[in-house]
Design a protein that fits this description.
The mean pLDDT is 95. The chain is globular, with a radius of gyration of 21 Å. By secondary structure, the chain is of the alpha/beta class. It is 44% helix and 16% strand. Helix 4 packs parallel to helix 12, helix 13 packs parallel to helix 15 and helix 14 crosses helix 15. The N and C termini lie far apart (54 Å). A hairpin with a 6-residue loop joins strand 9 and strand 10. The chain contains 15 helices and 13 strands. Bound molecules: pyridoxal-5'-phosphate. The site of pyridoxal-5'-phosphate has 13 residues, from helix 5.
Length: 365
């Protein structure tokens, strides 16, 4: 049996320094919180639908490996999401895994991943895991818009293998203008991945542009629409890209339960459409309430969350809410642009109200 000192020595000898330096990705325990931190759809399925789903799961054979190509599910996704006929589809264990596949396929010493900052943290983390260089290009301070000149200079100077554009952006919630994204597509020497995780709330998409740009991939997920627990993302693009990316995919990455459950859920798409429509309406109500609060500045959102700035110390506000059992996301300290910024996911109306009451108390405390 080895002593722990020896293990420490072995760890520092063998685990890559950039990995050792990382703080572990922290996910708070859900427990009894009113949970408005993770952009989850707050609505359960109607009980009759749950029964039908469980019936469907009876037919699943867990002793067998999954369909590695997840053919049935891919076809169902194409129909349900209106994927253009010429686009090919690649499935991932969440879009996080798709980002990883892209990095593994194009990575290598000196290869660059570029994204606006602040944006989705996995772009930077996965670049690091894959041993790639990450270049973050700061967004405009006042409205989190793209600084197009700075962006184009950074693209020309660093020749990124991949540019990730969250469309709309997380954690800021805004949608970059279509024409600017098109300009980036034209300026990029490599791939541009338009990450449409928030498509159900955005009312905008590059799906129809897939045939137009040879370097465009559109990435989607079922997480924010209401199936975060399934872990299913999909990537769309020209067959010549998708064929190469598919080579680094681990076999059977989409498990049998996810395949069966997602097929079932997509056949009942209307339920999710109703829920996401409801969330879009409640986003407006929540935004207006935040806007009416002294000392609070909410930023316009095309997603299912709202970023807002507090006049008082956001760390304090966050901690006070947490003590009251309300969990949101504290972004203060994550970027100079996000000073005193917090992010709240749109929940059920009653949850939103509890949050608003808690916030009102927290900023006067
Ligand atoms: C939430 C989110 C994802 C992650 O989606 P999963 O499919 O759950 O891995 C990807 N991109 C952005 C911008 C997100 O906010």
């Amino acid at each position: 049996m080895q002593t722990s000192t020896t293990i420490d020595e072995l760890v520092s000898r063998w685990v890559r320094p950039e990995v050792r330096r990382l703080a572990a990705y922290h996910v708070p325990e859900p427990s009894d919180y009113i949970k408005l931190d993770a952009m989850e759809n707050p609505y359960a399925w109607p009980p009759a639908l749950v029964d039908q789903w469980l019936e469907r799961l009876r037919e699943v054979h867990l002793n067998r490996y999954p369909d590695s190509g997840a053919q049935l599910l891919s076809n169902r996704l194409r129909e349900a999401m209106g994927v253009p006929a010429e686009a090919r589809i690649l499935l991932g264990n969440g879009s996080d895994e798709l980002i990883q596949m892209i990095a593994l396929a194009v990575g290598g010493p000196g290869r660059v991943i570029l994204a606006p900052e602040p944006s989705f943290v996995m772009y930077r983390l996965i670049a690091l895991f894959a041993g790639m260089q990450y270049v973050g290009v700061p967004l405009r301070t006042h409205d989190f818009g793209l600084e197009m000149e700075v962006m184009k200079e950074a693209i020309a100077a660093t020749q990124p293998a991949v540019i990730f554009l969250a469309y709309p952006n997380n954690p800021t919630g805004n949608l970059f203008p279509e024409e600017q994204v098109a300009e980036i597509l034209r300026a990029a020497p490599g791939l541009v991945v338009v990450d449409e995780a928030y498509a159900p709330f955005a009312g905008a998409s590059f799906l129809a542009q897939l045939g137009r740009y040879g370097n465009l991939l559109v990435m989607r997920t079922v997480s924010k629409m209401g199936l975060a627990g399934l872990r299913l993302g999909y990537l769309l693009g020209d067959a010549r890209w998708i064929e190469q990316l598919d080579k680094v995919r681990l076999p059977y990455n989409i498990n049998t339960l996810t395949q069966a459950s997602a097929e079932f859920a997509l056949a009942h798409r209307a339920v999710f459409d109703q829920q996401t429509a409801r969330i879009r309406e409640d986003r407006l109500t929540l935004f207006q309430s935040l806007q009416g609060m002294p000392g609070i500045t909410p930023f316009p959102s095309r997603t299912n969350f709202i970023l807002f700035r507090t006049q008082v110390d956001a760390n304090q506000v966050f901690a006070t809410l947490q003590r009251a059992g309300i969990l949101i996301k504290n972004l203060h300290g994550s970027s100079t642009l996000l000073e005193n910024c917090l992010r709240v996911t749109v929940g059920q109306p009653s949850e939103n109200q509890i949050f608003l009451d808690g916030l009102a108390q927290a900023i006067t405390a």
